[in-house]
Specification:
The protein has 11 helices and 14 strands. It is an alpha/beta fold. An 8-stranded parallel barrel has the order 1-2-4-5-6-7-8-14, surrounded by 5 helices.
Length: 369
């Protein structure tokens, strides 16, 4: 089973102050022996052209000028690891216009192919959030025609990558990230999407956050009957399978970061309770969770055995997070359901490799069953 991880190109950290320090990962931080694929996040669109913001100096922040040298070092050490360029991300504009005409799609496909050749990449990942958009609209530009144009865009990319693959004499990968939300399969023919891509990466996280009415699990595998939202990774997987996606085309997304709330009422140890404010706007990386919270005895770990999800509570602050136990259940689930594997958002949240090691070990145990 596959382990695919996104890898950020902006500075490490969970707060603006931490990211302003400009610390970046290096090739030595990457445990390529535990990974199958790295998705470098994110390239953005300028019309039909691609650019990586991290390669440019920002106010008070130098560019990640040696990014591709570090990736080449990863590839040299772990030649089996596939390194793909991910395009888009939350709030990334330009997809609706790009996909709206045959000419612009063709220009973009050629641009993507040129990046693969220039940087010795292994594929392209499309992270359009989202074609058509949820009911009520979204911040980025969208059209009702996006659903059809999204499939066309992936089809044009697939053909371009097939041509380049034959020329280079090596396989090239095309993947796409998709939301774990019911509206998406109503506006996008995901059964046709799977025909163009190697994998659909199911973003089965952020079920709860500061935007929610109560606290809750950010990435629970199963639904707890007490859950007022009543959604889960399992329900999202079922959604795509019923829409015609083959299980071997799905990667189940797991977060290496936490969501948190303050001023949480103590009933039910803070689970599914009102709160006074959200905490940590960018989420908490597992790096910080381990350093600041898991070692603090005032934060008591709780386990929801129905949802297969862990959380911390100190009488006021509630933190939903992923740990070795919850990842073990997700590895077993992926094996049981015949999924292709798991996808991680994102490597920089756990540079120690603790969660990655636990996930790899769980998958290995499942493979041996």
């Amino acid at each position: 089973m596959l382990i695919v991880s996104y890898l950020r190109t902006w500075p490490l950290g969970s707060t603006e102050a931490e990211m302003a320090q400009g610390r970046r990962w290096s090739a030595q931080d990457i445990r390529g022996d535990l990974l199958d694929t790295i998705n470098v996040a994110f390239a953005l669109l300028d019309g039909t052209r691609l650019y990586l913001p991290a390669l440019q100096d920002q106010p008070g922040l130098p560019a990640f000028s040696n990014l591709f040298e570090e990736l080449a070092a990863v590839k040299a050490r772990y030649p089996q690891v596939r390194i793909n360029l991910s395009v888009g991300g939350w709030g990334a504009e330009g997809f609706s216009d790009l996909a709206s005409s045959r000419a612009s799609r063709a220009q973009f496909a050629a641009e993507a192919a040129s990046w693969i050749g220039r940087y010795n990449l292994d594929g392209i990942d499309i992270d359009w959030e989202y074609p058509v958009g949820p009911p009520g609209g979204q911040e980025i530009k969208s059209r009702p025609e996006d659903g059809e144009n999204y499939v066309r865009l992936l089809g044009d990319l697939r053909r371009e990558l097939n041509t380049l693959s034959a020329k280079l004499g090596r396989p090239l990968t095309l993947t796409t990230a998709v939301p774990a939300l019911a509206w998406f399969v109503q506006v996008v023919d995901v059964a046709r999407v799977q025909e163009q891509v190697d994998y659909l990466k199911l973003m089965a996280y952020d079920f709860y956050g500061g935007w929610s009415a109560t606290t809750g699990h950010a990435a629970n595998l199963f639904s707890n009957p007490q859950d007022p939202a009543g959604w889960s990774g399992d329900q999202a997987v079922e959604l795509y399978l019923k829409a015609g996606v083959q299980p071997g085309k799905l990667l189940l997304g797991v977060p290496f970061y936490a969501r948190a709330w303050r001023g949480v009422e103590p009933k039910n140890n803070g689970l599914f309770q009102p709160f006074s404010s959200a905490a940590y706007a960018h989420g908490l990386s597992y790096n910080e969770l381990k350093e600041r919270f898991l070692t603090d005895p005032s934060y008591v770990r709780h386990w929801d055995d129905t949802a297969k999800a862990a959380y911390l509570y100190n009488g006021s602050e509630f933190i939903s997070y992923e740990d070795a136990q919850s990842l073990g259940h997700k590895a077993a689930y992926a094996r049981r359901r015949g999924l292709a594997g798991l996808m991680i958002w994102e490597y920089g949240h756990d540079l120690s490799g603790e969660l990655l090691t636990a996930l790899s070990k769980s998958l290995q145990e499942q493979n041996e069953l």
